[in-house]
Amino acid sequence: MLSNQDLNQLAFLSTERIAVFSLNRAISSFVYSPYSYPQVKPLTLDFLRWFLLGDYVEELSGVKVRVEFPSQFRAFVGEKEVPTSLISTGVGQLAALEIVAKNPFVKGMVIEEPEINLHADLQLKVGEYLAKLDKKLFVTSHSEWFIMSFVHGSANVPDVYELRGSGNLYKAEKVKVLEDRSIERLETISTYQGDFLRKVFEGER
Fold this sequence. Notes:
The chain is α/β, with parallel strands linked by helices. The protein has helices spanning 4-8, 24-32, 89-101, 120-131, 144-153, 187-202, and strands at residues 10-13, 54-57, 64-68, 72-77, 80-82, 108-112, 136-140, 160-166, 169-175. It is built from six helices and nine strands.
């Protein structure tokens, strides 16, 4: 359980909506404008509270990100600076995630769909990366690859829940994690893929 102190040191990353490198201009408007922006999802920019100034090498892609005051981002491949518009959304998301994760004041992270915009290989790698963090985590995902990777890489057995149901009636049901860190079948994700693979292997059209 998170204490009140932990809640004060809880970072929220709405990964599906983080396009860090496109936020340079928007940040100033959002932070300093006297007007509200109702179209911005609450907490979408919460992760910016936890950015410490400095250079960060995004471990999964090798891109270096420099955080400067006031809230500006620069990107480097090797030692060469490249326009942030050329950096993929996925790499930008991972950079934001890692910058927050490396902040020692952050005790916990709520992360929405860290696999968004990532190749399947990177989905596996980000699962392994998060599993090794010494943070309290609450993560949502639509990717079985990410879930299996995260569970398999965790030192302690994590609690895994799946929303099961239909229509407007869904219930969070606990998914069994086995001793070898495999998990029982994910009903809501695997059904269509399983049927598709069966058709392919059986030669159906």
